[in-house]
Every structure is written in C-alpha cells, then in structure tokens.
Amino acid sequence: MSPASLAAKRSSIPLGEFPSEKIQSWHRDRIAVVYVRQSTPQQVLDHQESTRLQYGLRSRAEALGWSANRVLVIDDDQGKSGASAEGRVGFQRLVSEVSLDHVGIIIGIEMSRLARSNKDWHQLLELCALFRTLIADVDGIYDPAQYNDRLLLGLKGTMSEAELHILKQRMYQGRLNKARRGELAFALPIGYVWQEPGKIGFDPDEQVQGVVRLVFRKFTELGTMGGLLRYLAKYDIRFGVRVREGQGKGALSWRQPNRMTLQMMLKHPIYAGAYVFGRRQEDPRRQQPGRPRTGRVVTEPADWLALIPDHVPAYINWEQYEANLARLQANRARAEAMGAVREGAALLAGLVACVRCDCRMVVHYAGSSDRHTYECTQLRNNHGGPMCQHIPGACLDRYVSQQVLAALEPAALELSLTATERLQQERDELTRMWRQRLERAGYEAERAARQYHAVEPENRLVARTLERAWEEKLAEKQRLEEEYHRFLRQQPRVLSAEERAAICRLAADIPALWSAPTTTAADRKEIIRQVVERVVVDAEGATERVRVSIHWLGGGRTDGMVIRPISRLADLSYYPELCAHVQALTSEGLSAMAIARRLNEAGYQPLTEGLRFGEQGIKDIQRNLGIGKSRNRMPRREGLAPDEWMRSDLAQILGIPQSSLYNWVQQGWVRARREERSPYRWVIWADNAEIQRLRALRQRSLGDEARRRWTGAPIEEESAGNGHQAKREDRGQEGGSRENAAQSPSKNGSEW
Questions:
Q1: Nearest to residue 429, comparing CAs of 207, 255, 587, 254?
Q2: H, E, C per residue of 511-565
Q3: SS3 of 685, please?
Q4: pTM
Q5: CA distances from 635 to 615, 645, 662, 675, 706 (A)
Q6: Domain locations in the chain as residue ranges
Q7: DSSP state of 709
Q8: What stretches of 181-224 show up as alpha helix (H) in DSSP?
Q9: How far apart are CA 384 and CA 393, in angstroms?
Q10: Do the Cβ atoms of 102 and 74 come closer than 8 Å?
C-alpha cells in the first residue's frame, strides 16, 4: 500500500482509534471481548449514558480490525461490585476464555470495570501476558507481555483499588457520623417505627406495645426464655411485625413467637431507650465465599460504634435491661454459671460453692432422682486428684430451706398482697389482649364487608373473591369470640373472695405452702433463688460436721452447722469421747442397754442424725474396743438329741460369728438340720471330735490352702474346707456387719 493510500485510510479513522502496531494478524484470528459492568443495580437503571458508552465499544473493536461476528460482549456482571471476583460470572468467563487462548484483545471503558482488586487484576495480567492477549481502554492499547505496558497496567490497577477504598471510606464515615447523631436509619425491632427522618417512636398499634411490655414483665417473673416461650404459646399471644420490604411494606403481620425473636428482644438495648449502631460487625476470618452477609459477630458494648442513651422511648429502664442480660448469662449450662431452674430434686443446684476451691459444686444423682449429693470436682477434673469434698443433698437442702422459710416469715402479709396483685394484673392483661384481638377481627370483617358492597354487582369475578374474603374474616371473628368465652370460663378475670382468702391463708402459712404436694421442686428453687445468692460449704474432713454459710441477696450472711450422715462410726467427730464414755460405763458394770440409755440422755447420736443408740450398737463399740463382759448363758437342750447344738450356741463355743457358721451349713461342711418348730433355725450336730475339727478349720489360714492348691499337693477335705472357710469367713464377717446393721435398729426404727 502506498503512503498516500495509508494516509487516506488513517484520516478516515476517528481520533484515538488508530490501529496499533501491537495488534498482529494472529490477534485478529482470535475473538475480541468487550467487558461491560456497572457496580449497582441503581447505576444500571439511572446511568444510561455509561451503559450506552460501554456497549458502543463494539464499534471500537470493529475499527481495530475485528469483524462483527468475532466480537463477544460479556455483560453478565451488571449490578455487581468489582471488589472481588466471587460471584462475578462474567469476569470468571473472561478469565476462562483467556486461559483457553481464545481472546486476542479485551476492551473496556476503563480498568476499574475489569477489577478493583489487585489480586484479581494481576491474575488477569499474568494470563494475558502468557497467552499474548492485549488489553485496551479509551486511553490506548496495552500488551501485558511488555515491561512498560505491564508497569502502567499495574499502576492503573493500584489506583483503581485505592479509589474503591476511598469511596468506601467516604461512605462509611458518612454513615458513622450520621449514626453518632442518632439519625442513621436501619430496620427497627418489634414495637418501634420510624415516625419521621431521624426520629424513632413506639409502634402506634396498642396491641403491639402491650405484647412487648408483657414479654419483659413475664421474663422478670418467670426468669427463663423457655418458660416465657411456653407462656406465650399457651395463651396464643402473637407478635405484631411490620413488613420491611415487598408487597404490603409497613403493614402489620401477626406471627407466632420463637426463641430467636425473644432472644433478640431481651438483648437489644433499644428497648431500654438507647440508640445503638455497630452491635454486629464483620470479621473477615468468618466470611464464607459467595455469602457476603456472613462473618458478622456480636461485639462487646465497649466496641459499639455508636451508643446514645435515652435517645428513643423506652419499654424498660437500663437497670432492668442489664438484669435481663445477667439472667440470660446465668441460665446458660456452664460450670461457672448458676444455670436455669430445672426439675431435679436438688434445691440448691447452682448455688452451692466449695470454700476451698471457690467454685460451684455439681449435683450428682445416685440411683433415684431423690438421692443426690453436691460434689466439688474441680481438683479431680482439672488435675486428676481426689474429690475435694461431697455433701449429701438432703441435709443441706433441709437446713437452707428452714433458714429461707424463717427469713420469709415476717413478709407473709406482703407476699399475700403481692401475689393477689400480680395474679389480678396478669388476668387483666390477658383479658385486654383478647379484647384487642376481637376488636381487630371486627375491624377486618367490617373492612371486608365495605369492599364487597363497594364493588359493582355485575362484576361477579371480583365480587365472588371479595365475598369469599368477607366470609373468611367473619369465620375468624367467630372463632376468636368462642376462644375468648372459653378463656373467661377457664380463668375468670376478677378474683373471687374465696381465691383472695386462700391466697392470704397460704401466705400466712408459708411452711405448709412449701411442703404442699402441688409445690414442685422448681417452685422451691425459684423461691430460694429470690433470696439466696450463694451457699458456701466446708466439711470437717470425713466427720459428720459441715460448716455452712448462706449469703443472702442484698447483703447479709447466716452461718451454721449441718450434720451429714456418714458410713463409719470411727469418723464421728466425738468418737474418742464416745469410746471413753463407753469404757467408763462398762467398767461400772452397766449392761449394753443401760449404756445406750445413758448415751442417748447425754445427747450422743450414731451415724445418722435423728437415730438413737441401741444395745447392738453399744456391743459393736465394746467389741471394737476389746472390752465388755461376755455373758455365758446355758446352751439350749430342749428338743435336741445328744451332741446337737443350736447355731448360736455352737458359734459361741467355737468363738466365730453366727454368719460364718451359717455359711458352713450352706456349703455342707457341717451336719445340720432345720428345727421342726421353726424352719428358719438350724440344729447342728457336733461331738467333741467334730468341735475340735471345726476349731482347727477356724484357725487355718487361706494361704495354706492356696499353697497346697497351686503347688500340686493333695488337698484333703479338711484343708479344702479350710480354704473355703477362710473365704467364707471374710464374706461372713462382711455379711455379719450388714446383718448387724440391718438388725441394729430397734423395732420402731430409731435406734442403732
């Protein structure tokens, strides 16, 4: 082509669109991609000129030498931000086409349209340099494989990302300044509406306000979110929620309560009159790909971006708001928290603390739900050591309950009046809510009737729909009226004179109310927690003495001593003193029964509180001390053949427990028969030689028989009997102790 022809051709190309020497013929063998993107849907709708300019880049590609059918327009990312490649299907498609070596040139209005993230931008540059793909904007054509162009493109990408940061920072600071003035609008919780720009007020619907106030009042009374949710479900109380978007925006929608909504209401500071912004902030570490709204965490009040107290009308005061948060925190099932009231028999669950470890003691139920102990497991769980201390629950619960009843006794009249007032207030509140629901149902039915009568009779297509809606509203109104009358029959609105008298009578007799069958363990726990903050216990070793310190709410402390049941007589704190008394009285020649009476009169008690010493208990002490006179009574001979003995008489002669001799009978080591008059008594045959054999059997050790058995020596009947006897003797002694323990109480069950 001649220079003149080339100059003429250049003169026909618009300014800024001269073919570049960077474009080679093999570039035109590939396709040209025009990338179109705008950041938000609002820009797509309002900024039509930018949209027209970007789609007009097709002609730019044709002017650079590409045919119209070789130009690809990618506009899948309209309305999406370029801050990240996630969720941008068009950009991902562009990268894929470049990686497949299909693209000769990428054309965009500016580099910020391709990407505002250096990570995504440099990834695209690397691919374009590898596959020799050109990049063009309104300023020129660039080859990422060349150093100067690569440097310029990198600088443009950095400026694009910095520009995005500046834009975001300006918007964020604007929102933050507006929030600190209390004017930033956001979605309000139940019970609040935006009355005018920058001003928050109560929801104008009285029923919505009444439900919100009922929620906070019942949580203060019930103390748990589960109890509050069950109460709302029992009386079919619903929340009035304003529709936030879509069809019917701003209208009331009555929805069933759920746990998440209740938790939001109890934790939101706006109900205490505080305007708050920034309670939930983004944590980039928790964000999930493809989900831009994830990664938000609840922050501490010190980290809130804006907090303006007393800026909005309040349903509760700030002190009640903090008390609700503390109660929710205490209800969590954690070792350091008190925990919510549950149905177990332990009245002090979550209140008992160990004086040594300064931590809460856990409740352990053994066998049945009525038998429980309070255990300090801090040392065992954290360091593998022994259990610090454990206290039987019945005695500790009984002591604390007595102290609580004594503390509540002066307030009996006030309690009765408060209970009457609260019950009356609750019934009035429920009745008022039912009337509001009936009033709303009546309004809806009248509104449907007006709509039906306003339609032209000839327009049957619309009239039938309105007639059906009117019938549904009438049916709903009738259903509510029937439920309201049923509610009034089950729970009259006004307390009767008999109910008031019953409340005053029960409040005057608090112990009777406490022990009534209708009072559950959960009710007793709630009463205790209203007055007791903590119960600190300190057991004196393995003895029966436990020091108890009751810390009352509002200050004050009561110290006392609790006697717990123990398993060994030697663990009694006064056991040395008891042994000295028994020795002294025995030396005076008193019988075991007389010694027991003396000890009971002196105030001594055996292992369990409330029991008394009996004859068998004194004999056990004398046997342990090796004192006492054994009264040799004449063996019984009536009805017995020569060389026959009663079991008790033969046991006395042999000097062994009766239980051991009974085990020998069961093993067949002695000749025995049942007595005719009493089949539960055994008569044993033993002449002089047999008595000597039994004595030798008594004296042989278990080690002799074991040595014979394992060395292969012949085992004679006597030695075998010796081995069995030794085993049975140990069991017999243990069985004897259990038998004595079972037989030791007297007939009335109050002696040991």
A1: 207
A2: HHHHCCCCCCHHHHHHHHHHHEEEEEEEECCCCCEEEEEEEECCCCEEEEEEECC
A3: strand
A4: 0.56
A5: 22, 8, 18, 16, 36
A6: 11-174, 411-513, 569-625, 644-743
A7: H
A8: 206-222
A9: 24
A10: no
Residue 503 structure tokens: 């409340």
Look up the CATH superfamily of 11-174.
Resolvase, N-terminal catalytic domain (3.40.50.1390)
**What is the pairing mode between strands 545-552 and 532-539?**
antiparallel
Three-state DSSP class for residue 644:
strand
Largest CA distance in the chain: 156
Residue 336, classified by CB atoms within 10 Å of its CB into exposed (0-12), middle (13-18) or buried (19+), is exposed
| 304: nearest Cα among 280, 321, 325 | 280
- Say if residues 193 and 242 touch (Cβ distance below 8 Å): yes
Length of the chain in terms of residues written: 752
Q: Is 39 an annotated catalytic residue?
A: yes
In tens, the pLDDT along 496-510 reads 666 666 656 655 667
Q: Give the residue carrying structure tokens 């990268």.
A: 95
Among 141, 142, 140, 135, CA closest to 115? 135
Choosing from 11, 12, 39, 701, which is the catalytic residue?
Answer: 39
For residues 438 and 237, the answer to whether their CB atoms sit within 8 Å is no
Cβ atoms of 135 and 106 within 8 Å: the answer is: yes
Q: Which two tokens stand for residue 204?
A: 């104008």
Contacts of residue 683, defined as CB under 8 A and 6 or more positions apart, other chains included, come to 640, 644, 645, 646, 647, 672, 673, 674, 675
Residue 83's nearest CA partner among 139, 170, 166 is 166
Q: What is the pLDDT of residues 103-153, one digit of tens each?
A: 999 998 887 788 888 888 889 999 999 999 999 988 889 999 999 999 999
Is 32:64 a contact under the CB 8 Å cutoff?
yes
Kindly tell me if the per-residue pLDDT of 745 is higher than 60. Answer: no
Burial of residue 574, with CB atoms counted within 10 A of its CB: 0-12 exposed, 13-18 middle, 19 or more buried: middle
Helix orientation angle between 717-743 and 702-711, rounded to the nearest 10 degrees: 140
Distance CA 468, CA 131 (A): 68
| 3 state SS of 613 | coil
Beta bridge partners of 275: 308
Nearest to 35 by CA among 63, 61, 68, 17: 61
